[in-house]
Write a sequence for this structure.
């Protein structure tokens, strides 16, 4: 029997989104408990699910992870600041990677 072609069903995409959100919650909990390697693994799994089912992370999820080392960024292992040009600059204290995220309409928060 030939393989089914085309898009995945809406149920599969919704299930993938729910699993990604659940993995982010688990990563946040384990990061707060000090289990850094476990939180990195949760983020890696969330990325793999996103790739497999072609699901993007939400903006709030994207800001909370380091793109270089996959660590979950919270107040313990990151440094946040707002630039004068309307960028939110997040520095990962694990690997030193600097992430820049634009603020909506240039509002400084």
């Amino acid at each position: 029997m030939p393989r089914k072609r085309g898009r995945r069903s809406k149920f599969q995409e919704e299930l993938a989104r729910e699993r990604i959100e659940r993995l982010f919650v688990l990563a946040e909990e384990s990061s707060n408990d000090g289990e850094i390697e476990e939180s990195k693994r949760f983020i890696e799994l969330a990325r793999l699910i996103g790739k497999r089912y072609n699901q993007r992370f939400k903006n709030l999820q994207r800001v909370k992870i380091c793109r270089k080392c996959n660590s979950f960024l919270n107040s313990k292992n990151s440094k946040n600041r707002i630039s004068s040009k309307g960028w939110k600059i997040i520095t990962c204290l694990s690997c030193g990677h600097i992430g820049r995220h634009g603020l909506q309409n240039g509002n400084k928060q």
Residues 10-106 form one domain. The chain has one domain: 10-106. Strands lie at 78-82, 87-92, 98-102.
